[in-house]
Amino acid sequence: MSQLETAMAIMMKTFDTYAGKEGKKDTLTKGEVKTLLEKELPALFKAAKNPAEMDKIIKDLDFNGDAEVDFTEFVVLVAAMTCAAHDRPKK
Ligand SMILES: [Ca+2]
């Protein structure tokens, strides 16, 4: 596999690993989102100083308003964070 294909496979595997912990297997519950952010996106997790802020991040992620984060919604988050990192001025 190419590097990009590997990166895509890792994204799919990461989502599936956390989504399979509780509730529906193909969506992330609020608890699963929290665990995923804490383990996989610690910088974003630390940026949320209190539970209310974390709730807002999760609410913003849930575009279709079904109280779960599906794979599309997860990919949008990763893409947004990738863009933010890419746009950051190089040292
Ligand atoms: Ca959703």
What do these coordinates show?
- One of its GO terms (biological process) is endothelial cell migration.
- One of its GO terms (cellular component) is extracellular exosome.
- Residues 49-84 form the EF-hand domain.
- The structure is a single chain.
- The protein has 91 residues and is mainly α.
- The protein has one domain (3-87): EF-hand (Recoverin, domain 1).
- Helix content is 68%, strand content 4%.
- It is built from five helices and two strands.
- The protein has a two-stranded antiparallel ribbon with strand order 1-2.
- The chain is globular.
Secondary structure layout plus pairing:
Blueprint lengths: L2 H17 L7 E2 L1 H11 L1 H6 L3 H11 L7 E2 H17 L4
Helix pairs in contact: 1-2
What is the distance, rounded to the nearest whole angstrom, between the alpha carbons of the first and last residues?
31 Å
Which regions have little confidence, pLDDT < 50, spanning 5+ residues? none
Q: What is the architecture at the second tier of CATH?
A: Orthogonal Bundle
* Total count of domains: 1
Put simply, the count of helices is 5
Query: Total number of β-strand segments?
Result: 2
Short characterization:
Pfam families: S_100. With 91 residues, the chain is mainly alpha-helical.
